[in-house]
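**Paired protein data**
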Amino acid sequence: MIFAAGLGTRFKPWTDSHPKALAIVNNKSLLQRNIEYLQQYNITNVVVNVHHFADQIIEAVNDNKSWGSNIIISDESNEVLETGGGLLKAQSLLQNDEPFITLNADILTDLSISNLLSFHKSNEALISFGITNRKSSRNFLFDEHNRLCGWENNVTGERKISIAKENLKPMAYSCVAIFEPAVFELIPQRGKFSLTETYLSLAAEHVIMGYEHSGDRFIDVGKLESVEVAEGMFI
């Protein structure tokens, strides 16, 4: 699932008249780049959630014949639900017996999904997601085995601890995550909520792991000035 429903407030003025997922990096939209990224790992059945200028995303998908994949739209036109609420709304589109992957439309990376999946399976985790050692306003906190234990806001100093341990390691979230389908039975939140809330509420009783890939290319194309940097990284 690709999360493409956000308002993109940090990406103005583009997002005053377009969805951020259709922002162009070297002649390809962020959405197309992430569809093609998944195709490298033979992932071609993709749910895309839409809200902000939903019609433009649907039109782009139709005009480009889903860039060779099978794209199913999860329509959040009535209300933006954030990542957690968006995932829950798409449950019927995602649920089968296999793990599934989610990523944000506005990130670009060459993280190996094959390696992430192997890591996920070897740790018998409920959820595993990419992390890197980079500067961020918010970090997840991990123990020495890279099990998720908490979260902190580096601007406000707020901390949320799920598993109390000493010497927790702060790492930045890469917005690429693998879930076991059983997660849908366990998510306590409803309505509009972030996956961060879900991770922290489940971490004490379920194994949630961080897969470090600090050597890989990664950029959050969350701001307009990030486009030029992204174009230097992803041709």
